[in-house]
Amino acid sequence: MTLAAPPANSGAPQRFPVVVVGAGPAGLTVGNILRAASVDCLVLETETREFIEQRPRAGVIEEWAVRGLEKRGLARNLLDRAELHTACEFRFDGERYRFPYGELTGSHHFVYPQPLLVTDLVREYADVRGGRIRFGVRDVAVHDIDTDRPSVSYLCPDTGERQVVHCDFIAGCDGARGVTRASLPPERVRIARHDYGIGWLALLAEAPPSADCVLFGCHTRGFAGQMPRSPEVTRYYLQCPPGDDPENWPYERVWAELQERLGAAGVPPLTEGRLIEKRVLDMHDYVVEPMVSGRLFLAGDAAHLVAPIAAKGMNLALHDAFLLGDALVAHLTTGDDSGLAGYGEACLRRVWDSQEFSQWLSEVYHGTAAGDPFRAGTTLARLRRLFTSPAAAAAFAEQYLGTAARY
């Protein structure tokens, strides 16, 4: 049932086949897939449109994910504007080691900051495909998920009145702190958690990248990373104590540590610039099982969080969204329930694969700084093996590019 789109935040209609909670990459992708099939849906978002289009987040998108977006008509700007990366570089023991995964596999990464992708997705959903979206809603709650008449309620930002929207399905795409995960019956849910016991100081610098690829510095003082975002802006990471105060890291200390940890023989110093973002991330993971309860289907960070160690978070969110969007369309248009029945299991196979790789890569990044000579020795052995063993290189490339578990 396709209805003319009312203005954003209007109160009608009050029934949709699908309500999507959260307007990040997962929620907007699900919404776009539904609208492409002429399935009516409503997206609810607590923030403003301007906020979600500017919020700094991930920037590395794996090739299979881009092809999934392209298949659904959601990658036009991305394909025109994204940078292609075919190599990364490890720096350890004062030397640089380039890893040309493009040559090994024929595959590459796309670098396209998440705010740009969200801007593309929300424009396609709301402005092109006529999808309903309400920004700035408050106090969202889900109800009756174990019945065939679930609903979602929220406080309207214009009137302050509680609105109730009835639906057939709820897509919980509202992230790690959202309400949908918290709405799962605790007696039916297992949440597996892992804490790495380290922090990363996440930085955005108004400075061009100092290399044409991602840099991984595995140093006795701690990990450092460079992740290009654009010709003018670069993402950097510095290992730090968990819970550290960003104010402990003034400009001079940040750049001194980056220069030290990412330095190598024969390379010029990093290009420095103004720091426009500075926050500490405590490295941890979790996985929610099952990802489905009744008519509530979780996707993205609402269902699983992977620390940014392996740059898998946004890619996993897109994988969930492809599976969930396609499964909902199949059910609502043809009555085919097979996709919905297998949704959680299919998602979790890739999620656990990414979690295992993140743990392996964490030891590579952080082992030399652990203060344990044995860990430092085994870490260096892993690093050297990447550049001396074709089998080890192929296995790493497969995991790094996300091609081990193709969608």
Walkthrough of the structure:
The chain is an alpha+beta fold and 407 residues long. The chain is 35% helix and 27% strand. The chain has 13 helices and 19 strands. The chain has helices at residues 25-36, 49-52, 63-71, 76-81, 101-105, 114-128, 179-182, 251-261, 313-334, 338-341, 343-366, 373-386, 390-401; strands spanning 15-21, 41-44, 60-62, 83-85, 88-92, 95-99, 109-111, 132-134, 138-143, 151-155, 162-172, 190-206, 214-217, 224-228, 234-240, 274-289, 292-293, 296-298, 304-305. Strands 1, 2, 8, 9, 10, 11, 17 and 18 form an eight-stranded mixed β-sheet that branches. A hairpin with a 5-residue loop joins β14 and β15 (234-240). α1 packs parallel to α9. The longest helix has 24 residues, at 343-366. It is globular and about 65 Å long. Keywords: FAD, Flavoprotein. Pfam families: FAD_binding_3. This is 4-hydroxybenzoate 3-monooxygenase.
What's a concise summary of this model?
With 407 residues, the chain is α+β, with helices and mostly antiparallel strands.
